[in-house]
Every structure is written in C-alpha cells, then in structure tokens.
C-alpha cells in the first residue's frame, strides 16, 4: 500500500445503498494504513500528497426531533431544525408525572401510601388501603379465587390492628375465616355435621327422648326400642359382659354410654369407640379434621382440600387454628401441608393464607422449591408476571405489620423487590417517592449483619460468565456489593430532585444524607472484601496447579 492507493481509496464513492458498509471499510483501511507507516514515510506522505478528510454520511436526511429521558422523571425533547447562530433549536423539558397522570399504573402507585414505615405512616392509612384492595379483589373477575384474595388482605388488616402481635391470632383468624365461608355457598352441604358455623343460631330445644345425647341426632329407633336397647345394655353390664355391652351401645347409637364405658376400659377399646364414632361423620366434616388433629395425625383434608368433594377449605383451617394441641409441630405441619395442596391446585392466595398463619419463612425467586416469595403471587412464573405491583404492596404491608412490634424488622430477600418498585415509580414520573424507597431499602440493608440478596439475571444483568468469581463466598460478596451499588446509583440520580436539597446552597458532598454516606462506605468495604477474596482464591488456584505440575 502506498500513498496513491490510499488517496484513491479514500475518494471512492459509496455504492452501498445504506452507505454503512463502505464507510466502515474505509475507516478500517485508514487505520491500517496509518499503523503501517513509519514516522519518516508518514512525513514524506504528508508532504507529497494533500490530506483528504473523510465525511461520514448523514444519519437522517431531514431534521428530526430528539427525545430522551432525564435522570429524575423528565422527558427532554429537542424540536427539529438546523441549529445556527441565528436559529437555535428549541429545548423542551416535560414532566413524566404530568404526562402519565391519567394512566392507571400511576394512579395505583399514588393510592399506595408507600414506603410503609413505622415513623411516617399511621396504621389507619394502611388499613384503609387494605380495605380498598380487598374490595377490589371481589370485583376483579380475572382472579381465579376472589374470596381468598380478599381474605389475604383482610388477614393483613387483622394483623395490623393487633400491632403485629399474634398472641390470640389463631382464634381471631378462625373467626375471620368463618365470616365468609358461606358467602358463595360452596361449603354448604347436605352431609351431616356436628358443627354449626352460623352466628345467628336460634335457641335449641331440649333433646327429645330418643335423641342421642352426644350428637343430638334422632336415632332410627323409637322410644320403646331405645328403652329396650338401654335395658339390654344394662343387663349385659350386670352380667359383667362389658365388651358385649360396649358393642351393643355402639350398635344402638348410645354413644354417650359407649364412650364413658370405653374410657374406663383399656385404650384399645376406647380407640375403637372413637373410630366408630368418627366414622359416622363425613370425611369433609371439620369435626373429623379436629379429631384427627387431636389424635396426633395429619388430617386427611390437608392433602385432599381444594376440590368439590371436600368443599370449602376455610372451616378446616379455622378448626385447626382455634384448637391448640399438645403437639404444635404436627399442627403447623398440617397447616403447611394444606397450603401446599392448595398451591398445587393453583389456589395461590388460599395457600398463602395458610403459610401466613403457620409463619412460613419467605424464600427467594431463584429457588423454585420455596413455598412463597411474595404474598399473592407464585414465583414459579416469569419475573415479569411474578413481581407485580400488587404482590410487592401486599408483602410490604405484611412487613409493616411486623415493624409495629419490632421496629428493626425487615425481610432481607424482599428488599430487592422494593428497589424494583422504586424503579417503577421513577418510570411513572414519581421521583420523590422513588427516592424515599431508596432510603428505606438503604437503611434496611445497612441493618443486616449478613446481607442476603439474590439478584437474578431476570432482575439485573450484572453477573456474566466472563465475570466468574472463585468461591461461593466471593460470589456472594460480589452480589451483595452489586445491590449496594444499584441503590447508590439510583439514589445519586434522585437526591438532587428532592426539594430540600435543591433549595440549599451547599455542595453535593455536604448535601448527601447520612444514610447515603454509610451506604457508600459499606459498599467500599464490600468491594475490598470481594477483591481480597478473589485474589486469595486466585492464588490458591495457582498454588494447586503448581503442586499438580510437580
């Protein structure tokens, strides 16, 4: 290649329709040519040939508008036109808050009084919002189980009223469960039951002669037959034939006599009478569930609920919550198993009611075997369908209820979803609320002794194969540092949009809030730890390779 060749190649016209490929080739030819020249030849070339400047083709043939988003909820627009000294293009700055004020998403975010903090929010406002959401669930035809979705919000209202204290939570929840158990008539059945859940019950007449004193059911025997059965039972006892008397009492429906006699005999006889007595009940009777639970067994309804045969699941959960047993582990396992069964049938809200009453810990999105991550949503969906605003708001309300009894309470794995919610607030043109969320999230992660965040690839694309870390500890510290970094970056974007900061005349460093300074220092420490961990792991790897080569 010589100077003449370069000059001719640089002046060749562009024959490509779009003009992009020939321009790129010309640029790379120019770079290759200048790299091949020596200083002496370059001086000779510059002195012998005139320099031809390359002109890139215009990206647009006519003037056009340029639109961009600002750092804190602004929309910047440059009107089309050729900018000259006499004619300057007009720059317009619009507010996304005003542009999106009529959208449903912004209205829903405005209605939510978040971030929910114990210091800034009275629980009356939180309860009012939950009431509105419960009513909205009953009007939402898209929900598969509207009553259970409303029940979940009402359960949070109950927890909020009790200031997060669950001392009498079981009996209160049982009462709440039964308030709507027959609202759609799904639980009403013609099958016999020993429990009447109706509140407005009329005064019962005394049992008639011939009624069973325990169940109150009219037996198939007449009065004469009942007297004969009792006389026969008495004669057998007078003759010392207790086993035959016990069998006669059960056959005649004299369950009161049978249970009393069996209680004075051996355990086997008593168990037999109990099994025969409970066998008279339908499998879907809540009393059957209670008897099985008191016997130390997982009730059958726990693995079979959620279909038409078993009716409504709520009376069964109510009877398990309102009756304490000596074995709390079995009771909790029964409730959790019921939640698993409901979740397997797609009744997510119903399952989460069970998990909430059983105090099941929250899991993380990447672990699909976890029972729940956000209230009212299944983490087995995609992140877009899972992390809805409603699910984040519902979970934040539960977290707020717990702060009423413990002001330092927070759900570690939930902070990343509050950060995601802050980003959505900014997209809707609400930078002030977004900054407040950054503050709440920042203070929460600073309180964590061992930061616990799982930032999946669906949330943020920060961890790729070419950024591999050596060792689980180094990887975890890296991910924790990423969480701090994201909160810092968004906070730095938004803090100058706050009114109290923009009005002051202080410098940027002096305007920085205390929590943001602590967050920045914590992030720096995590970066140092991550670097040291990676360095140590790298040195160990080199040492192991040397040992293998020997």
Poorly predicted sequence stretches spanning 5 or more consecutive residues? 1-47, 182-210, 451-475
Give the N-to-C terminal Cα separation.
Answer: 51 Å
> Would you tell me the overall average pLDDT?
77
Please indicate the percent range of residues in DSSP E strands (runs of 2 or more): under 5%
Tally of contiguous helical segments: 25
Count of individual domains: 5
Number of DSSP E strands: 3
Subcellular location: Endoplasmic reticulum membrane; Golgi apparatus membrane
Biased composition (Polar residues): 1-14
Main location: endoplasmic reticulum
Membrane topology: Peripheral membrane protein
Explain this structure to me?
- The chain has 550 residues and is an all-alpha fold.
- The protein has five domains: 3-48, no CATH class; 66-99, no CATH class; 101-194 and 283-408, no CATH class; 223-278, Methane Monooxygenase Hydroxylase, Chain G, domain 1 (Up-down Bundle); 410-550, no CATH class.
- It is built from 25 helices and three strands.
- The chain has helices spanning 3-10, 20-36, 39-48, 96-99, 104-111, 123-139, 146-161, 169-179, 223-238, 242-252, 255-263, 267-278, 286-294, 301-304, 314-322, 328-344, 348-357, 383-386, 389-403, 415-427, 431-447, 472-494, 499-502, 508-511, 514-549, and strands spanning 66-69, 74-78, 91-95.
- It has a three-stranded antiparallel β-sheet.
- Helix 10 (242-252) packs antiparallel against helix 11 (255-263) and helix 20 runs antiparallel to helix 21.
- The longest helix is centred in the C-terminal third of the chain and has 36 residues, at 514-549.
- The model is unreliable at 1-47, 182-210 and 451-475 (pLDDT under 50).
- Residues 235-449 form the Sec16 Sec23-binding domain.
- Belongs to the SEC16 family.
- Residues 64-164 form the Sec16 central conserved domain.
- It is found in: Endoplasmic reticulum membrane; Golgi apparatus membrane.
- SEC16A and SEC16B are each present in multiple copies in a heteromeric complex.
